[in-house]
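Technical annex, item 7. During the second reporting period the consortium partners agreed on a shared format for inverse folding records so that results from different sites could be compared directly. Each record opens with the tokenized structure and is followed by the designed sequence. A conforming record, contributed by the partner at site C, is shown below for reference.
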């Protein structure tokens, strides 16, 4: 007995992954889940030394965006993170299209951390903080500001020190005289282009029409707030502040597909309630309109969750059009790219909040960047009402978000031991049968991958 115990103890001290230079990628597989809080894709990258890297494809994005990269990665050393990232980054794009490249990049960091026995934040340069402040996002579809205020107050009682809610078209669209709109245009926004299965041509036509409608950019919708609408929105946030007080930061999102000028009108109305930021008022591509928006109000203007790569953030930061940037690691290009984006923003005096709406894998990736980036302000958490969220993985504190903070440990990589198959198997996306299934059909995907000649 004593001998066995000593042998076990000795084994515990041996680093079984002690040959990082011989580490090779052998496989890549996915599990497509939903409800945590949205649909996302958990990613595993396997190696020849038994260690597995975890990543996640962004909420609402396709597993294909990651799997199409498999043939470009097999046989490679996952510790060559930056080199492999530069190889695959041509296959990413803004919004959900960044999801595959970003998922792989995160899994490579997890593998490198596990191979060398180092936490990711340490590889990024070390700590700026011992714990990561979380902001709790709360959908606010209800018409009553007081009711939403009470929900936010409950968040505060759970320990959250930073809040976000929706304020915009969704609360007033049904109120006569609150919104100026071209006849028939509002109904369509209530239908989102959902995942299949689609059986008929007509079903496909309806979904494609929904895509087209939701892709009409804000300046072209013809929607405006009336003064009555602005009165109602001002009353809404006033009621919320009445319940939660003025002491706690409150960010504002989902204003609706209104123009920059309507954004200015709303921002000026709610300045006295001191929003932490006003988010995605218009598409982030309209750099000059962002500058006009920020010049017209004292409310900090924020965008970024759909921007891929630091090059996407640069024009906005140079324009002075934002006071807070809000990258999502699962779109931005992953861990190192977001660290670079944060540092670039800091040089302009701009703070970084981080968007995140997936599982603890995405949360930990973001928390490591937040730990190691000086101008970080708060990290999104969208799963306060998902009771199985903490059970998706093992090896992390339970609950992971405690008193409004995540504490990042010194464990290697992301700090996650494993994914719990029994839990995720109960929350698969519609039409998905099984998890971590073979992906051999992606092994030989090929094209002449060069973006110049
Ligand atoms: Mg948002």
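Designed sequence (site C submission):
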């Amino acid at each position: 007995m004593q001998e066995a115990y000593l042998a076990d103890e000795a084994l515990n001290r041996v680093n079984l992954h002690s040959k990082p230079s011989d580490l090779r990628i052998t496989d890549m597989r996915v599990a497509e889940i939903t409800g945590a809080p949205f649909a996302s894709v958990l990613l595993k990258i396997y190696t020849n030394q038994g260690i597995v890297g975890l990543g996640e494809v962004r909420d609402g994005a396709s597993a294909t965006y990651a799997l199409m990269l498999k043939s470009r990665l097999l046989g490679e050393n996952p510790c060559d993170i930056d080199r492999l990232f530069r190889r695959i980054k041509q296959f990413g794009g803004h919004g959900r299209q960044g999801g595959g490249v970003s998922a792989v990049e995160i899994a490579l960091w997890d593998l490198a951390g596990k191979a060398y026995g180092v936490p990711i934040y340490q590889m990024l340069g070390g700590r700026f903080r011992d714990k990561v402040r979380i902001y709790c996002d709360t959908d606010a579809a209800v018409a009553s500001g007081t009711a939403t205020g009470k929900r936010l107050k409950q968040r505060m009682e759970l320990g959250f020190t930073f809040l976000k809610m929706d304020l915009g078209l969704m609360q007033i669209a049904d109120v006569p005289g609150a919104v100026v709109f071209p006849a028939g245009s509002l109904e369509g926004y209530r239908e989102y282009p959902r995942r299949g299965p689609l059986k008929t041509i007509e079903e496909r036509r309806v979904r494609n029409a929904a895509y087209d409608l939701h892709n009409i950019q804000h300046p072209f919708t013809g929607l405006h707030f009336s003064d009555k609408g602005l009165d109602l929105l001002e009353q809404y946030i006033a009621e919320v502040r009445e319940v939660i007080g003025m002491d706690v930061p409150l960010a504002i999102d989902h204003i609706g597909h209104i123009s920059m000028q309507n954004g200015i009108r709303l921002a000026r109305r709610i300045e006295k309630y001191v929003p932490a930021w006003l988010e995605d008022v218009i598409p982030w591509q309209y750099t000059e309109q962002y500058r006009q928006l920020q010049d017209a109000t004292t409310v900090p203007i924020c965008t970024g969750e759909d921007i891929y790569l630091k090059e996407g953030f640069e024009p906005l930061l140079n324009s002075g059009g934002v006071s807070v940037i809000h990258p999502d690691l699962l779109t931005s290009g992953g861990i190192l790219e977001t660290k670079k984006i944060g540092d670039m923003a800091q040089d302009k005096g701009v703070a970084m909040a981080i968007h995140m709406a997936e599982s603890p894998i995405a949360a930990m990736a973001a928390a490591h960047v937040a730990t190691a980036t000086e101008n970080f302000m708060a990290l999104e958490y969208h799963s306060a009402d998902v009771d199985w969220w903490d059970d998706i993985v093992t090896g992390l504190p339970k609950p992971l978000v405690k008193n409004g903070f995540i504490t990042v440990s010194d464990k290697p990589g992301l700090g996650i031991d494993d994914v719990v198959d029994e839990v995720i198997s109960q929350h698969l996306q519609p039409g998905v049968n099984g998890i971590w299934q073979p992906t051999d059909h992606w092994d030989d995907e090929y094209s002449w991958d060069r973006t110049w000649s």
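The chain is about 35% helix and 15% strand. The chain has a mean pLDDT of 94. All partners now use this format for quarterly exchanges.
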